[in-house]
Structure formats: structure tokens, C-alpha cells
Design goal:
6-stranded antiparallel beta sheet, alpha+beta, 180 residues, Immunoglobulin-like, single chain, two-stranded parallel ribbon, 10 strands
Length: 180
């Protein structure tokens, strides 16, 4: 099993996280096996999941992660059989030279996650793998095998699910998880 501490552990000198960085980190970990935050070694210097500026996103993203539980359980089962839960963007073609985005990853075989790393970003360019994909947040369909520019407001990192996937209905419902 792999995971990361949302927000990181170390924080020293001028290195600290603000509310945007913490939210973007939570977005990514929502679409992983384990969603676990960490106050860091300097809690007072860093934005926290319970801070007023972040709390609403913390609750919403945690609810989405919980709604994904059946899919997460499937990913854990497949991992027990040797298939990694998180896979590089070139996984399907198994050609490491064909990586289009070193930060995008498959979560299982039905979700494709493209974390936002640029401060203040509202959009992100993504290269979708072959097939038909649906934007998790907007429900808009996209054709794979090409580049797209998609919305990426804070709290909604670009995530896509396979249009014809076994868990498409689960993803559609999870995206509509009630607001806090």
C-alpha cells in the first residue's frame, strides 16, 4: 500500500503550506487508497484541514473518498493480486518512453487523475489515454488519445473515469456528494 501525508510532514524555515496547496494535496489523495492528513512538525505555521479556509473542501473531499469505498476495495483486491493501485500514465501501453505527464496517474483501471501543481491554476492541460472518458466533476465526455484543456478550479483537480467502466455510476454519484 502507498500513501502520502496530505500536506506533508516536514516544514522548516520559510517552507510552509498555504490553504491552496493543502487543498490541492487533498484533491489528489481523494483519488488514492488512503486519505490521511498530517499537521506537520510546525502545525501553527501551516494551513490545516480544520482551518476555516479549508474546512469545507476537507469535508466535501472526504465524503467523496468515502463514496468511492467500493472502488477502493476493488483496487486493494487487485493490488493483492499484483496489480498496483496507482499506475503511471503509460501503464496501458507499457512504454515508459510514451509518458505524456509525469504527474498524471491511473487509480485502478477506471480513474485517471491529473493533479494540479501550478499555484492559482484554474485550468489544466491533460493528455487522456485511449478510450472514452468522462470528466468527474462536469460530466462532460472526452475522447482519449489526445490533449485537452479542462477546468481545474480549487477543489476539483481533473479526474476522469471510463465512460463504459464498471464503476461509472458510482463515480457519477460520488461526484454529486452533498456539499457540507
Amino acid at each position: 500500500m502507498i500513501h502520502c501525508d496530505i500536506g506533508g510532514f516536514f516544514s522548516f524555515l520559510k517552507v510552509k503550506r498555504d490553504a491552496e496547496l493543502l487543498t490541492r494535496w487533498m484533491e489528489m489523495c481523494t483519488f488514492s487508497l488512503l486519505m490521511r492528513s498530517h499537521e506537520s512538525i510546525r502545525p501553527d505555521a501551516n494551513a490545516q484541514p480544520y482551518d476555516e479556509a479549508v474546512r469545507e473542501q476537507t469535508v466535501r473531499l472526504t465524503r467523496i473518498h468515502k463514496a468511492l469505498k467500493p472502488y477502493i476495495a476493488r483496487c486493494v483486491h487487485l493490488a493483492s493480486e499484483g496489480l498496483p493501485a496507482l499506475r503511471p500514465d503509460f501503464w496501458e501501453d507499457m512504454d515508459g518512453e510514451d509518458s505524456r505527464d509525469p504527474y498524471a496517474y491511473f487509480f485502478g483501471d477506471e480513474l485517471f487523475v491529473c493533479p494540479v501543481l501550478k499555484k492559482g491554476a484554474e485550468k489544466r492541460k491533460v493528455w487522456l489515454p485511449r478510450g472514452k472518458w468522462v470528466h468527474f466533476w462536469t460530466g462532460k465526455s472526452y475522447k482519449g488519445g489526445k490533449k485537452h484543456t479542462v477546468p481545474a478550479p480549487l477543489g476539483q483537480t481533473p479526474v476522469f473515469y471510463r465512460k463504459d467502466g464498471q464503476y461509472a455510476n458510482l463515480f457519477r454519484e460520488a461526484a454529486r456528494s452533498p456539499e457540507p
